[in-house]
Amino acid sequence: MTGGASGVPTIYPTILYDDAKAAIRTLTQGLGFTEEAVYEGEDGSVLHAELSLGNGRVMLGSRGREGLFARAMAGAGPAGVYVVVDEVDEHCARAREFGVEILMEPTDQDYGSRDYMARDGEGNVWSFGTYAPGPAGARLRLLRCAPGRRPGGPPWPGPGPGGPRRGRPGPARCAGGRRL
Question: Which residues are registered as beta bridge partners of 37?
């Protein structure tokens, strides 16, 4: 298995744009990504670009090129991508200042995250929030649960209905038995 233990992400969203250069400007200047690499073709198209935010990366390029991936992606999109950020309100303010369309203002969610949603110039939906998926995220949900709520009960229910099956943990719950 790669990634994970070494801290290297193992999933990289890949999006093709009609105007990849404009997308790079929006993602870097408006949404805070860092341009790591951009490779252009002789015609000025973006053959491959990598942008980072935190320890994650997104790869992108220009639509309409040759090759199997380009053919497979010909009718694809828009896509939805979720990105973990610490300062949701400040991140949203930066995006708004740049002119990015905000679909949902920063909102406290029942599961303890604070997030907002934006759309780039080609219809891709970008969600930014404090929830981190995975085991650390599950612990975070239990700690946060919901504003004004205290997590209750053991993090993993015992055997029986709703409990572990084949060594897997059951669903996490907030006080009052509400599933996360």
Answer: 50
The CATH number of the domain covering residues in 11-144:
3.10.180.10
Domain boundaries defined on the chain:
11-144
Tokens representing 133?
Answer: 């998926």
Coil, strand or helix at 78: coil
Spell out a b/e string for 69-93, using b for 16 or more CB atoms within 10 Å of the CB, else e: eeeebeeeeebeebbbbeebeebbe
- Give the helix/strand (H/E) hosting 34: strand 34-40
pTM for this structure?
Answer: 0.67
Residue by residue, pLDDT tens for the chain (180 residues) are 344 556 777 789 999 999 999 999 999 999 999 999 999 999 999 999 999 999 999 999 999 888 888 888 887 878 999 999 999 999 999 999 999 999 999 999 988 899 999 999 999 999 999 998 877 554 444 444 444 433 433 333 333 344 333 333 444 444 444 444
